[in-house]
């Protein structure tokens, strides 16, 4: 790679390529990786000159390295990880689509919002000056739960984002009537008729450093004032907002990095018990497994390549790309991997397969005997590009209809083409989204204490198999029946923008 001194030389020379008009004094500037600079340097055989191809991993990594060099001093001063001011804890809520949620504080005076964490989309939005939003209270949300509604007029630190703002470029600028107009946004999600729309605003997001002497950080961020929600957002999925964690520059991780508040990386750790953690600036550890992101010029996302899978003693060949998406509750696989993996799983379990149930979206479900105390499952792993093994610690979903009456399903759904590693496949792992190195990292972890590594598995493990201990009978079987009937709709609600 070209040295920093050479990069500066190329930039200065590029500035002098085209003379300024006689009526002005100045230079025309060109990016060091621009075609104009490349043609100039190649024509003069500049030694050490290097140009990554646009849209490749090397191109984005070079830009990130350059940005980090410019912000290095600020990042050095903010070397500790950041979490939300109300804590880094996340929780999976079955009543709200089986997604992981966190509490965030916005504005002055601050208001709290329970937002779904979504690596499959970019924009952070909350219900705001509502014309059509989910109700602030509902029996489905739980007892004594009341949600807040944001209003720019109620916060002394709120600012409207104008069409002239650079972060408005990712939105629907055709709706801008003038550069000084408020920047509108419309985000359509995969679930049918599900969307959020409104205007972009800037306000304070309250974060906290994670060190011996924690400090509150007031980070100015841009987010969506969601005036109109449709579809799933009016029901049980993300009724109080969605926290987009994607790669685009409007996402909160991108904004924190651009301001020098955190390294361009974050981690999420989802425990088997439904609790978890999120850390901004976390770059993982040297002993974690890794694989590079797939760089798509048209859509930047956390996509990785899968080169195979194992189910117990069976090895399955596969070549596919999959989106790592915390905003999707369960995992979606397309054929041929879906059929090969599910058939192998069925052949290796001891329980009798159940007939399809229209109330249950999973195709492969199995009956559990009332006298069973454990379930023996074949171990499932995915092989990623580069050879790293992604362990699937929690491949099943256990249903309880009444006392001592259980069945379980392989929690994978068949896709028509898009492969998604959903939240359930992330359980028991600390997942590191390193956006500077453009890699996904993971490691078996105790998510209730992020200093502890675990051996993985749902309970205890043995060679190529996992032992699952049956839980105690539920105290309220009617709740479980209701959960079964509503699960199908909740699963579809969780799919995010692609």
Automatic annotation (TrEMBL):
Catalytic residue positions: 118, 325
This protein's UniProt keywords: Aspartyl protease, Cell membrane, Glycoprotein, Hydrolase, Lipoprotein, Membrane, Protease, Signal
Compartment(s): Cell membrane
InterPro entries (alphabetical): Aspartic_peptidase_A1, Aspartic_peptidase_AS, PEPTIDASE_A1, Peptidase_aspartic_dom_sf, TAXi_C, TAXi_N
Occurrences of domain Peptidase A1 (ranges): 100-443
Coiled-coil regions, chain positions: none
A Pfam family that the UniProt record links to this protein: TAXi_N
Cellular component GO terms, alphabetical: plasma membrane
Domain of life per record: Eukaryota
Secretion signal span: 1-24
GO biological process, one term: proteolysis
Gene3D superfamilies recorded: Acid Proteases
Protein name (Swiss-Prot/TrEMBL): Peptidase A1 domain-containing protein
